[in-house]
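Let us begin with a simple case.
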Amino acid sequence: MSGHSKWATIKHKKGAADKARGKLFAKLARQIEVAARAGGGDPDMNPGLRSAVSKAKGSQMTNEAIDRAIKRGTGDAGDQSYEAITYEGYAPCGVALMIEVLTDNRNRTGADIRHIFTKSGGSMAEPGAVSWQFARRGVIVVDGSASEEVVFDLALEAGADDVVSEAGAWKITCDPSTTPSIAEAITAGGLSVLSADSPLVSENLVPLETVEDAKSVLKIIDLLEDNDDVQDVYANFDMSDEILEGAAE
């Protein structure tokens, strides 16, 4: 699996103690609001909302907070309206990046993203230059203390494609349309779901072979993710566990 996937798994595992957790919930709430405004407040009738709610629950966002976000999205249209934009670019070492944002000011966000690329040794790319390398996949991360047999049985019975051990957790992959139902089945089976999402993944991986290279790539990803308008960042780098551990210190 890609180094970015391993890095994301590590961050999900330490998320409960991370000071950025409040910012994560704010971004998840924005995604729920936008999905509810676009397609209604019933997750069963709104696939986009169902996916956003599944992602929020997978990040341990409370039902109360989710309900508030849905109500804001379906309320009288007088609140902020957000525009979904995807930026493409390259981190150092030629690593491809896809950056998904929700913004109420395209000019501000575009300038912020460009500034991050410039000061971090990366470069923006034209639409389509990077996106061809990525495809949407369902990814569910389960606490690594669960037994292999139980995880496999629950996941495969619910329709998952594969289960692998990664960064001390179990990573389940599936068709993105089945992510919410599989996550619900895993939770109903008594296991702890650390995250449930449908990220963009790439089969064209760029190997990072030194800690310095890994740190330079992770730096630009962290800066992008720290921007309030950025919802998700996807990358196609790969690295050994040893390099990842050195870069994460």
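The second case is a distinct protein. As before, the sequence precedes its structure tokens.
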Amino acid sequence: MVSICYYVVMKKNIYPGKFIVLEGLDGSGQSTESAFLRDFLIEKNYKVLMTKEPTIISEAGKKIKQVLEEKEKISPLELQKLFVEDRKLHLDNIIVPNLKDGKIVISDRYFFSTFAYGVSDGLDLNLLIEMNNDFLIPDLTFFLDVNQDVCIKRVEERGAKKTLFEKREKLKKVYENYKKIMKNFENVYSINGELTLNKVFEEIKKYVEKKCC
């Protein structure tokens, strides 16, 4: 059972820009919908930066890539420590400077992935929250609700090689964790990601126009 006992005191965004995150299983459409959102906001004359996690700018990010591709093996806790290290650099070097500049920053994945995937590996949720507790909480987070079977089919159809996390039983646990965990955070919206790409974006756009535009 997933429960949050730790008192969450994550930092709110105090900068002029807005921070938007898209979450979901691999194959749920975060990258596509992030691009749709970027293009929509640029058309409205907003300054926008699109980014993603893990990054490839840090040594931690590069090592994460090796682990996910099963070229290297480490413990679940060590893996999540790498994600936290990479996330700190991501915030310090990319996200926060662009928020200070007044840009809307769209990130494909953030610490919600750490929570959902880490718990599926047997780690304690409250420990994972504590490890990420100094980081900014997004102004808006969208969870693209697509079950594991649909995601696996999509991944297979695009011909991409499955990573460590793209295994059915693992994804089932991660999906269930996402559904439970995301309810405990502010400004998180669940979107039916099994609709057409355009319909999914129309739902996202409604919230963005209300909250950020």
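The domain at 19-211 is CATH 3.40.50.300 (Rossmann fold). The mean pLDDT is 91.
Keep these points in mind for the review questions at the end of the chapter.
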